[in-house]
Amino acid sequence: MCKLTFGRLCRISLVALAVFAGAEASARNINVRGKVINSRTEEPLFGVSIYNVGEDNKLIGSTNEEGHYTVNVDDTDQLLFSAMGCEDLTVDVNNRINIDVALIPEANQLGEVVVTAKSVAKGLIVEPTDIEVKGNNLYVKTRVTIPENIFSSSSRMIIQPAMCNVTKKEIVYMKPEVFDGRRYAITQERMYDWEPESDPLNDYVVIEGSAGTGKIGNVVYIRDSVYVENPKHDFFCEVMSSMETYNNVVYTDTFVIARGTVNPMRFLSYNLKGSPVVNEKFFPTPEMQLRDTKGDVKLTFSVGKSRLDMSLGDNQAEMDALLRQLHDIENDPDMALKSFTISGTASPEGNYDSNRALAKDRMQSAMDVILNGLSASTRRNLEVSTEASVASWDDVAALMRADGKTEEAEAIEEIIDRYPSNITRQGRQIMGLPYYTSLIKEQYLPRLRRVQYEFVTSKYRYLTDDEIVDLYKTNSSEMSRYEFWRLYSMADSADREPIIKRALEVHPKFLVAATDLADIYISQGKPDPDLIDPILSKIKGPVPDESRLNQAIACLAVGQFSKADSFCPIMKCVINSGYIRRRLTVDTMRRFRKFRPILRSMKCSCYLP
Questions:
Q1: Residue 144 and residue 537: Cα distance in Å, rounded?
Q2: What is the spatial distance between Cα 241 and Cα 142, in angstroms, rounded to a whole number?
């Protein structure tokens, strides 16, 4: 039996601890982050597949839109970076938590279309293809081979193609291909409370060996298309695959099968001009506007009397003139009597309250005469307001001073200053002046006794160009479509745009203004497809051909080829119609004809003659 000293035992323990510590260090698990770029363009690569070489090339992650990735591995593992169109790259982790990678593009690329195949050991074989542009639709055709050795009867294989818009960072999933093994399908059916409609992939399932499907291991064809708003964006297509059993996912991979698009019109250069509305049929018609006018008459009353004496002064002539105006208003279909304002004034001699009551009675007396001369319908719709007042002795002094009788006026003003708040006391003192009867009573007081009528009428009439300009400056929200159209038609080219924009704020469905603004935008090189379209979609009747022309040009400029194409069959019919042809300008027809070869080349669905 061997005896161990204490020192020897300690040495053996230290060696064992060192070996254990080394084993722990070799198995350290870390998160590795980094960025993958194209070594030639230095642009980030999206969808790069990352495999763990030490685990039989197991897929452990992929890069996002910015080329970034994060994977969890041992610090001694090796990573394989693989991307369609680039050479595979194997990197040792070597205890690094940040690994940036630059992949070298393969030599056998043509433009943006990848022509090399990608195959991962023990995985699917997906053939590269092209993204073909037809109008606003992107078409993809490819073949996927599912090796028999990776698919069992107890599994489900899902093949999901997707179109990725790099410009907008959006993904649109296309029709999936789903294959269920026979035992997998039977197990599904026998599951307790299993409901096929609860499976989102149920409509796409093909069961192994079912009629017309053949055996797994044959080629699966993918043919699908997606609609895009702008085919000028940057796209790539990828195929995601996954195989699962009843309990978990046993295989997954992603293949980028196409980068960029094949567009026959990619390098087409064209310059199409819009057109303002020139067909007079669609010009807005002038609209009459309500405008107020005012007039007044003056009637005279006897001292202390409230009844209107038509024989006094010019009362009869004034009343006849007033009634003639009112009858003219009643007989004019473009005018309406809106309101009367009656102001009655009494002279200041005597009691103030009595004078005020006298003024009211005089107004009523005159009002009765006027209203009796109007029709019943006019009286029903007429707004009447009255005001009664008593002239002051200050008014008498002002009239006398204006006539050059300064001394007499100063005498009255001195009495007013002596009794500032008592108009009755003022009157008594003024009546004691030596010239009261001969001058004040006979000449000035009658001038203060009056009833004045102001009437307001509304008349529909057309505004002059100067009035339209003034209305735009003061209250443009009250302008009609015609007035806006007239204003910007008269304006210089540089001033038209803000006027039309304001017209569309006041009248959002003003198609002529929208069409004319679209023409301005086209000439500025910034066509707007959303300007005319909302108005066109709500109009049931005929629309200007210039509206369709400008809308088609705007859609064409932003890559909405199918939408641009939708306007052309209508325009073709218009041009081919002899009756309507006469209403079109030669310039509009010439511009439309420039569309035909362009749209033909874009493989649009409309076949133009």
A1: 43
A2: 14
Q: Where are the beta strands (DSSP E) in 84-151?
A: 89-92, 101-103, 109-110, 113-114, 118-119, 125-126, 131-134, 137-145
What residue has token string 């995985």? Answer: 123
pTM reported for the whole predicted model: 0.41
Render pLDDT for 548-569 as a digit per residue (tens, 0 to 9).
888 888 887 777 776 776 665 5
- Alpha-carbon distance values, 335 to 292, 461, 482, 597 (Å): 10, 9, 21, 58
pLDDT at 472: 93
CA distances in angstroms from 282 to 10, 404, 488, 525, listed in the order given: 106, 67, 16, 26
Largest CA distance in the chain: 163
- Give the model confidence (pLDDT) of 43-59 as tens digits: 888 888 899 998 888 88
The rounded distance, in Å, linking the Cα atoms of 601 and 577 is: 25
Distance (Å, rounded) from C-alpha 396 to C-alpha 410? 11
* b/e 449-458 (16+ beta carbons within 10 angstroms → b): bbbbbebebb
Q: Which helix (H) or strand (E) holds 327?
A: helix 315-331
Which residues, including other chains, have CB under 8 Å from residue 587's CB and lie 6 or more apart?
275
Residue 257 CB-density burial (10 A; 0-12 exposed, 13-18 middle, 19+ buried):
buried
Kindly state the average pLDDT of the residues 233-251.
Answer: 81
Cα–Cα separations (whole angstroms), residue 378 to 337, 545, 557: 7, 48, 60
pLDDT confidence of 294, banded at 50, 70, 90? low
The sign one gets for the Cα dihedral 126, 131, 132, 137 is positive
pLDDT over threshold 50, residue 420: yes
pLDDT digits 0-9 by tens, 369-385: 888 888 787 777 778 77
Answer whether 226's CB lies under 8 Å from 172's CB.
Answer: yes
Task: Identify whether the C-beta of residue 208 lies closer than 8 Å to the C-beta of residue 153.
Answer: yes
Helix (H, G, I), strand (E, B) or coil at 210: coil
Asked if 113 and 262 touch (Cβ cutoff 8 Å), the reply is: yes
